[in-house]
Design brief:
This protein is of the alpha+beta class. The chain contains 4 helices and 4 strands.
Length: 102
């Protein structure tokens, strides 16, 4: 049985982009992400240092990498990428080793 995969993208917002604006831009990707087979969970957070994390759980590594490749081909993606400060985005995929929820 394959393990769930966490897709973790960290970044800072581009100059002049507000938190509210970025959340709206991120929500534009919701229907695409929800429609992908293997989607489990997604959350977006921002740290005290202004660094954001988009955290998505996928059913497996193949799905995570496949969706990541398709994500950049979607209409909403250009606006979303323009809202991220150049050179700050980092993405990685990790197998979930353990998790818990309330």
């Amino acid at each position: 049985m394959s393990k769930h995969v966490a897709e973790i993208v960290t970044f800072k917002l581009a100059e002049g982009v507000s938190e509210a604006d970025f959340i709206v831009l991120s929500q534009a990707s919701e229907s695409f992400v929800r429609a992908q087979p293997g989607f489990v969970h997604r959350q977006l957070s921002c740290g005290e240092d202004g660094r954001w994390t988009d955290y998505v759980i996928w059913a497996d590594m193949e799905t995570a990498k496949s969706v990541a490749a398709e994500f950049h081909k979607q209409d909403f993606c250009a606006s979303l990428m323009q809202a991220i400060a150049e050179g700050t985005a980092q993405m990685r995929h990790e197998e979930v080793q353990w998790s818990m929820a309330s």
